[in-house]
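User: I'm curious whether this sequence folds into something compact or stays loose and floppy. Could you predict its structure so I can see for myself?
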Amino acid sequence: MTLNADPAGPSADSYVTISEADAYFSADYEYAGIWNGLPEEDRTRLLVSAARRLDRTAFKGRPFDERTPQALAFPRLIGGLIHAVDSDGRVSIPLKVRQAVCEQARSLHQSGDGEDLACLGLESVQVGRLRIAGGAGRGRGLCPAARRLLAPYILHSVEVKRS
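Assistant: Here's the prediction. I'll summarize afterward.
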């Protein structure tokens, strides 16, 4: 399996390359050895699965390139601005999105099937007659670390109903 992390690419399947993820995890005392011990095929699958999980989230704005459909949600135009552009002026993936992919990959690896309670979040909470439900933009399926990193980009909506 080959990883394609081309920003705004029509066949991109990841926001980060293996080497970017390796560099991200190298600073993590507890997880660096585990990540580096995984076969490249497993690291590739985790990064692709994490990108897919992120892309199930409703984000603010719209995809950067709508003429040549980009495969992934980022880069995006939000409020008329491109999120993000690198130091050479080329469209890139925001740092927080790349970090969120790494955190989501870690969560998927540590939870096995990726469906542990911390990653699922809650659909709604009801106390007595008051019910609070998350809207469609909620980052369902994201681990808490990825959700925090993506917070500036997530389209938030909350619905409060009385029953």
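Summary: Confidence is low (pLDDT under 50) at residues 113-120, 135-139. Strands lie at 62-63, 76-78, 81-83, 124-127, 130-134, 158-162.
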